[in-house]
Amino acid sequence: MAAVKLGLIVSPAIDQVAADELAADLGAALAERYPEVEWEPEVLTDPLAEPPVHLTELVSAARSLLLDADWDLAVAITELPLRLAHRTLLSHASRTHGVALVSLPALGVLRRRRRLYDAAADAVGTLVGDPEDGRAGRPVGAGLGVQRRLAELAGDVENDGGVAYVARVISGNLRLLVGMVGANHPWRLVGRLWRVMLAAVAAVAFVMIQIEVWKIAATLGPLRLAIAGLASIAAASVTLIAGHRLWERAPAARVREQVTLFNLATTATVVFGVTVLYLSVFLASLLGALLLIESSLLSEALGRDTDAWDYVRIAWLSSALGTVGGALGATLETDEAVREAAYAHRPTNPRRR
Fold first, then answer.
1. Quick one: 177 and 324 in the same domain?
2. Cα(43)–Cα(21) distance, rounded to whole angstroms?
3. Domain span at 229
4. pTM of the prediction?
5. What are the b/e assignments for 109-148, b being 16+ CB within 10 Å?
6. pLDDT tens for residues 102-147?
7. What does the alpha-carbon distance between residue 70 and residue 254 come to, in Å, rounded to a whole number?
8. Tens digit of pLDDT for each residue in 10-29?
9. What whole-number distance in Å separates Cα of residue 64 and Cα of residue 57?
């Protein structure tokens, strides 16, 4: 039976005996919930980071330990409080990173051990994509999806290098990759990066009033317009990924598959989000062009009669330039803000438990 290696990173505030008991209980519970694979919990005592520390830094620290130890998943139990958008959280899970955090202070004092056990087990359920965290009543389709994800997590891809290796990672983990991207909610990326949107709108507003842009757009056919759009999306995506260090490097060959999956999910998430930005900016540009550019003025500038297609071309080219401007605006965002936007997490409020 294939095995899923689960790292349990515990705070030094938890003694070794209690940590070992928690790992044993958690392994038994996961084996009962998800008997499709064998669970191999491993305990590591590490404080992750010294306060004050941002939530994304804790996730990154736990991710580094996961890669160093060659685990498939990791749950970190920290004595630091977890906060997101001014909310105190009990747990915080990122399927893309394969990491979940559980906050000891949020557990309270009553039934503390039981609440810790439940929070850790439910965090693993979130990481494997179980919408019900292993509880009874889970839809059959969802159960099959969890089984596939567990099999993919436990599986290995031959590690030889090159494009063929990446192709095998994708084909062998396609559902897992799609699940990782979907869990990131990439369509929300732009809405959470308001500086990107403001920079894009400002760039479009400046570009659209330039008569030279009108003339250039009027000479472009569908192919060149498509290339301009794709080039702007690619440039903006590379700027976001490189500028905010979203690309991960494999510390060792044995974790190369995990890192490849992570980078593929990151790239797909960012490209999808930037594409949403581009289309949103295009619709706004088209509306602005129709409202602000008189057909007579446009005809005079182009030296011929104009039609709706001219407005589409102007809006499309303006959007391409505006999207690049939006990516440059993303350099004003903090790394933490971009990572929070790129990697959606599932938080649990302690008051709901």
1. yes
2. 10
3. 163-342
4. 0.78
5. eeeeeebbbbbbbbbbbbbbbbeeebeeebeeeebebbeb
6. 998 888 777 888 888 889 999 998 888 876 555 444 444 345 667 7
7. 7
8. 999 889 999 999 999 999 99
9. 10
